[in-house]
Records
---
Amino acid sequence: MLKWDKRPDMVVHKDDPYNAEPPRRALAGRWITSSDSFYSRNHGPIPQVDPQAWRLTVDGLVDRQLMLSLKELRAEFPEREQVATLQCAGNRRSGLMEVRDIPGEEPWGPGATSTATWTGVSLADVLRAAGLHSEAGHVAFLGPDVSQLADPPQPFGGSIPVGKALGEEVLLAWAMNGQPLPAVHGGPVRVVVPGWIGARSVKWVERVTAQTAPSENHFQAVAYRLLPAEFDPKQAGPGDGLSLGAIAVNADILSPDEGETLLPGDNVVTGYAFAGDDRGIARVDVSIDGGATWRQAELEEQISPWAWRHWRARLELGAGEVEIIARAWDTSAAVQPESAVHMWNPKGYVNNSWARVRVTVQT
Ligand SMILES: Nc1nc2c(c(=O)[nH]1)N[C@H]1C(S)=C(S)[C@@H](COP(=O)(O)O)O[C@H]1N2
Ligand SMILES: [Mo]
């Protein structure tokens, strides 16, 4: 059996804890990522949680503390299905590492982005049943997996502001692509926070706490924050840098792959584009002359307000080495920045610079 039932050609950044992304070809041409291709990002050992024994505690600034089994969660709240893209804040970090090394972090490519159909209940319904207090400003999540990346080691957690937590798209999900949620993706139950960095979608969630301030968990207060380029990440403490939440507009090329050899003439280029929260993809441009001139790609269907948008463009390519470039615009008219040089940051988050793939066109 392959590790965590993943396809054999996953790009494995680390075996233990398992960190792997699908190659571009596994994402290309598919609006829904099959579960065996979906990236997986883990900060600690993957727990095997018995679905019968699993309980969710809802506490903090609520009228009634709740303790729910999976059976109760399914019976007491309306079921919701949501297609949503997850994207790690470290997606495309490898592009930042080409600018300057980022010791201790993994060189993720464009595959730390995947899309699934999630089934569960709205977190908002559960918070309403608990009687959320008006002073609650944030909703914190806690998993059971203890990460050695925190000092001292602590379970993975994070939080989202109450305004986002009450959006009906935020799920406590037990199924992925119509199957029980696999352990590697947080089974039996995980949080899915569509449009926000993947880190907020806490897996194997055991506790939901309504509180006045953001979570003090390492992965909210210290990691997943955007530090100024000059900052020494070893000196970073709670609250330093910008807290990452909604995902910035981003895109990458899925086909052709980096280094591919193509035939001269008409070639089809495809890729994905994604913008977080309430923003959508408005336009994708492609260029083969370094960005001097652009041509608009054709946008494929918007399959859900919370999913990426695939795009395609037909390019006439002449013989030689060609760099294909793509950039997306979102519905707030934000566009991807040109260069990773200006995006570089000590932990290597949010590389949303122009997508570039170098190919050789045969003579
Ligand atoms: N409990 C727990 N939840 C977690 C993580 C983790 O290490 N532990 N990693 C987070 C990060 S950084 C990302 S990008 C997503 C990845 O989800 P996936 O492994 O299902 O793709 O899970 C998030 N939830
Ligand atoms: Mo992540």
---
Amino acid sequence: MAQEFERHAPRDPLPMPPPMGFPEKGQPESDVLGDIQDRITEDPFSIERNFGITYVGPPHPIVERVSTLTRGTYFVEWAREWVPSAYAFEKEAVRMMASLLGRPEATGFITSGGTESNMSAMRLARNLAGKSDPEIVMPTSAHYSFRLGAELFGVKLIETPVDAEMRPDMDSVRRAITPNTVALICSAPEGNFGQLDPVPDFAELALSHDLYLHVDGAFGGFILPFMRELGHDLVPFDLSVPGVSSFMTDGHKLGMLPVATGFFLIKDASMLTGIPVETTFIHTLTATKPGDHAAAAWAVMRHLGRAGYRASVARLLESVQVIVEGINQIEEVKLMVKPLISVINFTSDSVDMERVFNELSGRGWGSTFGDMNGKARIRLSLNPHRDHEHAHAFVAALKESVQAAR
Ligand SMILES: *Cc1c(COP(=O)(O)O)cnc(C)c1O
């Protein structure tokens, strides 16, 4: 379970403000906007200095203009005749992603994000298999949304071990397959260390046992294809691998799209028989979805193209490299694993990492602190808006923070 990786400090399960009346009279726009400005200013870290849970950067600047043009539009399969533009933006964006991810003929949906995409895949796999006691096998490093899906869809989830660098034990995966198994799940990459699961090994198992294979590419879909184009040597991970049934990715992670833009891609349209819509009219887990997100996805892909995303990924990886070199130069801290993408984890045998974390926060730099495999660690997640100046400034702050914690 994820808890073995990360022990969160106990905290209030759901903090709420005191009861609040619904205002009788409206306030002037300038007052309301002023209040918003004040609140935002009180947030502890500026966007540039937050290396914590910030895989979500600001969307590409074109998105704001697209939203103005498409405000109030929405897409949902059953209303496509009413807002054909939004439906077309959605489906064309899906086709562009399908091409990027190895199978132009793949079908699919824009979802509200990774959680909805993962759950949609579990439901599809369960329905297509039609078994009475369905089970799904996944490495324990996979995202917790699969546990939510298992609960909702009455699927038994079998979690298999990974090693200290998040590599799944493939023997355990094989042994976990039973006559009740309906699907395998793997990640490209997993979210803890950002390491790529051996998708071809999972695909081979899926093919030989006639199982559905879903690949969670929440983080990877907008970086791995461009890394490959930039010459990085990666194992195959996408829909071009025979045996991969579906692939999902989040536009709001490294794709510069607005929050709540995910892609759920299904290998063949024939698999849509697993989504009964005769009485629900709903294909995914949400219905009415924002048309401006579909238009934004379409627009950013058209505007940046592969060349634009490649350049952005190259810049992002340069910043990662600056921080990696900085960590390597500081005697007291060390990487927990060689970063593959934009996620960096480091620990120490000699200084108190919680102290380092607090020192960084005190200097205005956001990061995440937690426990992983019994080691205190700091995790950084960079987004495409970081440049090497932010990275150098972070390294300087880290040096000071380690010095202070010594
Ligand atoms: C972020 C993430 C998800 C969930 O995505 P949301 O958009 O937050 O619902 C799923 N899987 C992985 C690997 C992720 O990093």
